[in-house]
Amino acid sequence: MLDGYGREIRYLRVSVTDKCNLACVYCKPRPVKQLRHEDMLSIEQLVEVVRAFRGLGVDKVRVTGGEPLLRHGVVAFVEQVAALGCQTVMTTNATRLKEFAKPLKAAGLARINVSLDTVDADVYRDVTKGDIADALEGIRAAEEEGFSLRVNAVLQKGVNEDIMPLLEFAEDVGAQLRFIELMPFRSTTGYFSDRFLPSSDIIEKYGMKRLFGEGVAEYYTFDGHTVGFISPLGNKFCDYCERMRLTGTGMVLPCLHSGLRFDVRPYLGDEEKLSAFLAECIKAKPRSHLIEEGELQSEDMGSIGG
Ligand code: SAM
After folding, report:
1. pLDDT tens for residues 102-161?
2. Does residue 188's CB lie within 6 angstroms of at least one atom of ligand 1?
3. Ligand 1 within 6 A of 92 CB?
4. Cβ of 16 less than 6 Å from ligand 1
5. pTM
6. Residue 185 in contact with ligand 1 by CB distance below 6 A
7. Residue 279 and which of 21, 172, 224, 298 are 20 to 30 A apart at CA?
8. Are 160 and 153 in contact (CB under 8 A)?
9. Ligand 1 atom with the shortest distance to the CA of 114
10. DSSP 127-151
């Protein structure tokens, strides 16, 4: 269906858990407030909400988190969402893909976006506090299963200004590399001011030429390579934003950067009321984020879900 500004809403991002086994510096403030198990929607309830969104025209669902592969029942969730006729994709840090690549393929997962900012083990540890071997093994496992892969890297000064090692790795595993501009959230403004690196700096540094735009990403080429950029600040894409978000606790967010949150729980179990409620949430989607005006309404990315 169309939102209040005529944008067709077809894409839902579902954060199936707030838990993560990494601790990326720009993602969540420490110490992390853990939600209680009883505050989370069950897999059945999450599927119920996706089904209602499907009835309103959503046909693409991204499973994310926290780290989605930490959620018990995530494979069953993927299977049920794919069975609704949604293109079902996942964003993951890849550390558990060694175990999950095969069952996810069998469940009907269409594509995996892997978050990886660097292939340098020490820099990776600094950014995530994790062991890069787990992520690399996971990515290889997904490649062996024949998954269509993307590598998404958050651009940061001092982490990935030299894009070649990551680009060579992505090409080696048959993945499309895309850079995402670091976004400021209320809890991570210090890191943002120290490390923000605009896409335009990299495009200029490597003498890249624009190829095409696809959804929120713009693709560039240089020396026979292709690289994507998602630039919520440098190249604001709110006019084309077709996304809604659902958190594991049942909050519907029409925009990552607005303070709007709508609780779906009172409407569960009643198909008609749930559908009418979600239609209202879609209608409430703001025209655009107001980050440039200094309005940071969301606390952090990690607890909303990426
Ligand atoms: N754990 C999964 C993962 O690592 O892909 C999914 C959740 S994570 C929050 C989703 C994505 O959000 C990751 O690619 C992460 O790098 C990105 N992210 C988190 N905080 C961000 C920020 N401040 N700016 C830009 N991207 C951010």
Report:
1. 999 999 999 999 999 999 999 999 999 999 999 999 999 999 999 999 999 999 999 999
2. yes
3. yes
4. no
5. 0.94
6. yes
7. 298
8. yes
9. 5
10. HHSS-HHHHHHHHHHHHHTT-EEEE
